[in-house]
Amino acid sequence: MKILIPVVVGAIIGYFTNWLAIKMLFRPHYQKKFMGVKIPFTPGLIPKERKRIAESIGQAVGKYLLDSDTIIKSLSNQGVDKKIKGWIEGKIGNLKNNHNTIKEVLENAWENYTDIISTIKANIVNLILSQIRKEQFINETLAFLHRKIDRLDTNNIYSIVEKQLEDLIKGLSNSHEFKERLGELVNENIRGLSQDDRTLGEVLPEEIKESLDKYLEENKELIGQSIKRVLKEPSIKIKIRNSISDLITENFNKVFFAFISPDLIAEKIYSAIERHIENDETNDDLIYIIKTFLNRLMEAKISDLVPRAVDSIGEEGLEKIGDRIIKAFSNPKTHNIFLQIIRNRLEAKEGENKEKLLEYLDRNIRLILDSEEMKESLFSFVSTFIDEILDKPISSIIIKIDSKDFEKTYKLVTTIFNKFLEKDLPQIVEFFKIEKIVEDRMNAFEVDFFEEIILEIAERELKAITWLGGILGGLLGLLSPLLQMIY
Fold first, then answer.
1. Element (H or E) spanning 34, and its range?
2. What is the mean pLDDT of residues 133-142?
3. Is 380 within 8 Å of 149 (Cβ atoms)?
């Protein structure tokens, strides 16, 4: 009994002492007073130093457990890469089986879908306008147009214009409406000329009169030969003889004709005219006569000439003139002449036309870009483009992704993710301040809950310490009797 009692008492004291010490770590939770005097060791150590403990734990977690380097290493291993690849494969697989349009998906995701899409369209239009209205863009565009116009293949353009004009002329030539309109124009011009008091010489351009005079001088022999051939025609001979005979009959007494026939006189006169015409010098006389006639014709008033011409020609004659104009207009040779004149004019003024075009662009490009019509046209284009994209099923876009596209997508996502880890994640971790989050969270816990967390972590160890106190107390209780027995 002398040995057992000290051992039991020592064990009980050791066990109770450690149990009380552990309890005093957590209890009491709050400061206790007796008769207004603070009771020592209240509150318990952990409740009393909770803030300091939370701060220390927060710093330990933030600096050593969840620092940016640790997070980056954990997110940079191959397991994460496989998860990213699997995630991409899963998403693409789901999208390939999704037959909803992009519009339907967004309508389900966004309550104010219409407003958002309208805002996106407006922002895109404003962004484009802000860029194309900048002086740098305008200057670069003008410089580009200048280079293109300087290097322009005008022959190709002329050929296109020629073809278009040729088709237009052919169409007009066969158009009934054109024929009617031409007839109306002829009649309108005739009515206008019938009231024109100017002379023919005043109406005709000087170039035409000079060209006509030059033509007569250069082709006098040809004109003389043509007149001679005409006069030698039997029908013309008869008409001239009859005219001379009638003239003699009208101007001489009938008694005179008892001695000589009018027809004989007419024959003699015509033979003399014929001999005179056969003379080479007669060509100059004929040209002089023609010029004299033309000069007198030039002095005649348009208002006098036109009615006479119309009366002599008649309605049928006017129709024939119109038909001849149309026929001449329809002639391929006329087409070629007309087109060649236009081409020659264009080629002659090619440099001038380019300069005018560039001047027009310089003057008007800013007005065009700043106009409301430009904004409306651009909005219509952007709106149509976006609507076409939104109306496409998601599967129709994703289905085109093959293994190569998948690898490209995977590499792109991986590259973006790795760059995010290297450049942005440290800043984000720093921004979140994990130490402060852990500290604030622990301070927000109730003392009971705080105690429960620590006990869950160290319950076995604390029990072992309690029993260790009992064992040590028992050993010390055993040691005292043994020493007494020895000494």
1. strand 33-34
2. 85
3. no
Widest pairwise Cα distance in the chain: 213
Cβ neighbors of 231 (< 8 A, separation 6 or more) are 237, 240, 273, 274, 277
Q: Which two tokens stand for residue 133?
A: 């209205």
User: CA-CA distances (angstroms) from residue 468 to 12, 437, 471?
Assistant: 11, 37, 5
**Which residue, among 2, 10, 19, 15, has the nearest Cα to 475 in the 3D structure?**
10
pTM: 0.40
Highest mean pLDDT among 356-360, 378-382, 447-451: 378-382
The CA–CA distances, whole Å, from 31 to 21, 23, 37, 41, 312 equal 17, 15, 11, 8, 139
In contact, 70 and 52? CB cutoff 8 Å: no
**Neighbouring C-alpha atoms within 13 Å toward the C-beta of 332:** 0
Please, what sign has the CA dihedral across residues 399, 403, 404, 408? positive
- Contacts for 52 with CB less than 8 Å, ≥ 6 apart: none
Locus of tokens 């971790």: 429
Q: Which two tokens stand for residue 52?
A: 């300091």
What CA–CA distance (Å, rounded) separates 207 from 211?
6
Structure tokens at 345: 């004019």
Tokens at 147, concatenated: 């280079």
3-state SS, residue 123? helix
Dump pLDDT digits (tens) for 32-70: 777 767 776 677 777 777 778 778 878 777 777 777 777
Contact 322, 182 (CB under 8 A): yes
* Confidence at residue 416, expressed as pLDDT on a 0 to 100 scale: 81
Q: State the DSSP string of 162-191.
A: HHHHHHHHHHHHT-HHHHHHHHHHHHHHHH
Q: Residues 55, 69: contact at Cβ < 8 Å?
A: no
> Amino acid letter at 406?
F
- Condensed to tens digits (0 to 9), the pLDDT of residues 229-249 reads 776 777 777 777 677 676 666
Give just the sign of the alpha carbon dihedral 438, 444, 449, 452.
positive
Give yes or no for a contact between 451 and 46, defined as CB atoms under 8 angstroms apart: yes
Q: Work out the average pLDDT over 446-455.
A: 74
- Three-state SS for 100? coil
C-alpha radius of gyration, the chain, whole number: 59
How far apart are alpha carbons 122 and 369 in whole angstroms?
A: 16
Distances (CA, A) of 353 to 14, 16, 150, 359: 114, 113, 11, 10
The two three-digit tokens of residue 408, written as one number:
């490209």
Band of pLDDT at residue 311, cut at 50, 70 and 90: low
